[in-house]
Amino acid sequence: MNILKQINSAWPTRWAVVFLFLFLNCSPDQSDDPIPYQPFADIVMNLNLPENTGLRSTGGYRYIGGGIRGIILYNQGSNVFYAYERNCSFHPNDACATVNVDVSTLFMIDPCCNSQFNFSTGNPQGGAASRPLRKYRTTLLANTLTITDEIVDQ
């Protein structure tokens, strides 16, 4: 009878260990993949062309090819342009991880994970993302804007 009490009193401890083991092994994966790198040839744009009219004013933007899923080119003002990778920084290998400019034109958003990104920095300002968008080097000379695949501010 004494042995039976010892066995019965050990069961709660054993179940707690089994439960803890299963819980820790079934926890969600908190890791995240980096944004893949895809080199591209320099993109040279004449800002005087009609298709670039929107880029001539502060807050203007345009989607262009390049990078992984394309680039959002944004006029910050005072002849400062930012080129952001459209591949979201949260689970970038997901098929729908593509960033767009929100309809309000106040921020960028990935409709897949609802992460929102600031135009000035590319930093997340809401949603699941914790890392900024990839930013590419831009150079303005007169009315010619050049975007390179060099990553800046990361």
- Overall pLDDT: 87
Structural class: alpha+beta
Shape: globular
Radius of gyration: 24 Å
The topology string of helices and strands comes to HEEEEEEEEEE
Taking strands numbered 1, 2, ... along the chain, how are they ordered across the largest sheet? 1-10-9-4-3-2
CATH topology: Rieske Iron-sulfur Protein
Helix content: 10-25%
Largest sheet, strands/sense/barrel: 6 strands, antiparallel
CATH architecture: 3-layer Sandwich
Proportion of beta-strand residues = 25-35%
Name of the CATH class: Mainly Beta
**Number of continuous helical runs:** 1
Briefly characterize the structure.
With 154 residues, the chain is an alpha+beta fold.
Task: Give a topology summary.
Blueprint lengths: L1 H24 L17 E4 L14 E4 L6 E7 L2 E6 L14 E2 L6 E3 L4 E3 L6 E3 L8 E7 L2 E9 L2
Give a structural overview.
This protein has 154 residues and is an alpha+beta fold. It contains one helix and ten strands. It has one helix spanning 2-25, and strands spanning 43-46, 61-64, 71-77, 80-85, 100-101, 108-110, 115-117, 124-126, 135-141, 144-152. Residues 15-30 have low confidence and may be disordered.
Keywords:
oxidoreductase, 4-stranded antiparallel β-sheet, dioxygenase, 2 iron, 2 sulfur cluster binding, 1 helix, signal, Rieske Iron-sulfur Protein, 154 residues, globular
